[in-house]
Design goal:
It contains 20 helices and 10 strands. By secondary structure, the chain is of the alpha+beta class. The chain folds into 3 domains: about 170 residues, Beta Polymerase, domain 2; about 45 residues, no CATH class; about 170 residues, no CATH class. The longest helix is centred in the last third of the chain and has 20 residues. It starts with a helix and ends in a 24-residue tail after the last helix. It binds adenosine-5'-triphosphate and magnesium ion.
Length: about 450
Amino acid sequence: MTPSKATTDERQTSLSEPIIIPRPDHPISRKKIAHNAIKILYRLKNSGFTAYLAGGAVRDMLLGLTPADFDIVTDANPKQLKRLFRNSRIIGRRFRLVHIFFHGHNRSTPQIFETATFRRPFTLEHDDAESIKEQPNLANNLFGSPAEDAGRRDFTINALFYNIADFSVIDHVNGLQDLEDRIIRIIGDPDTRFAEDPVRVLRALEFACRLNFTIEDETGKGLKAQAHALAGVPASRLREELRGLYTKKTTAALLSLGDHYQINHHWLPDQIANNTAESIPLLQTVENFFPRLDNDNELEKMTITALLLPGILKEYPLADEVRLNLVQEKVEEWLKPISQRLSLPRFQRHAIKEIFTLLYRLGRGDKRINQLLNRDHFFAALFFYAVITKATTPRPAHFSFWRQQGKRLNRNPGARKLDYGALFGKPEKKQTGTPAKTQADKPTGEQK
Ligand code: ATP
Ligand code: MG
């Protein structure tokens, strides 16, 4: 046994008795928990089961943040859960979870609570079609004790429980200390746990960025050493994990941290991994500029465009003489590997290609505003045009024309109330010799 493994084992043995923090000593109050989650927890408890809140909800409430969702764990098995909650559905093939649904007053999108039975460690975390080997009876062997359930989770801060029976917080993995110290630490032996499920490599970066925590040294070494296994993660799963990031506006930070650990090339195609020095600031602008944009698809399209754009611009700067078909060929060529890596659906590939086409049309001084405005992704293209040209000196020929349009179009519904005028920045101070309005700056076919 290697020394580091001995330490890990000792650590786990010594923690087999959980630390229990009674209600007066922690800040989680029932008022902060979704009403329907409380209902589920109480119904389980009143039926004689153990019922805990788990995962991100406990972590976030301890940090004073508002949880995104409330996950529940219990010793009731899926069939018992189904019997207790009429409004539920068993999902998953290998590890069966129960989704419990509640409809709002106006029958809007239902609120879903994921309720899982305590499970023991198992090498595969996810229910991917690829990873499921049909094994009858396997499900029966998956259930475990609360301590085992905590032990199979990813990071110590994600493995805390809130017990509805006495409102205490239960800590089997020393997560409270790490929460206090603001540390991301994988549970168990880092190499084993990252190799077991390489998506945890990205999750480590994600939580460090989202919460502004530090990655503990051994965890950092483990993720660096095992990041190569990200290459084998199914595209659908990688996309799902990334889509979870977009609305949290932490993709740029995650890529920076990935550069720090030198692991981005393990999961991103070369064309993207080689250009992060330029694409990260661009992506940061996307995240800052769209604070209210809360749509995964919209942000996914903007993110992938931002990742591809700097490399493409190196070969084809925005200029009148650029041949559109050559740019389109290049975009097609570079889009292919990232589309495969993330299993991007056709409508997203189409959207990204369209943004590039429109962007280069703006760059060539195509001013058929009405025609351009009818195109779905005009505002996305205008966004990238503004960000890129604002940063270039001298400003390209059509810059002031598009800046004027940006201001004028702010109230267009397609602008989604985002201030495109601001994005172009204030007009430069009048300098002596500022060129007069040129022919190139006049619109064509514009309507009032
Ligand atoms: P978020 O606020 O993004 O929902 P979360 O911590 O709740 O954060 P989820 O993806 O919702 O993250 O997962 C819920 C819990 O399931 C995690 O807190 C963690 O305990 C466990 N978990 C999720 N993914 C993994 C994984 N790949 N390996 C081990 N445990 C995981
Ligand atoms: Mg969650």
